[in-house]
Amino acid sequence: MARWSVASTLAPLQMHRVPPAVFVWVLRCAGVAGLLLAPLSAQAQRERLTVRAEALGGTTITRPTGTTTGADYTQRMVQVTLAHRLLRDQGNTIILLGGLWRGVEAGLPRTRASLRSDEAPDALTALQVATADVMVLKTFDERHTLISVLRPGLYGDAFRVEGAAFVDRIVSPRTTVGAGLSYGSAYGKVLPIPVVHIVSRPSRRVLVDALLPARGDVWWMPRKGLDLGVNASLIGAQYGLTASQQVGGADALRLANATLGSQVRWAPRGSKWQLLADGGLTVLRRLEYARGGDLVADLAPGNVPYLRLGAQRLF
Question: Whose CB has fewer CB within 10 Å in the chain, the N or C terminal residue?
Answer without folding.
Answer: C
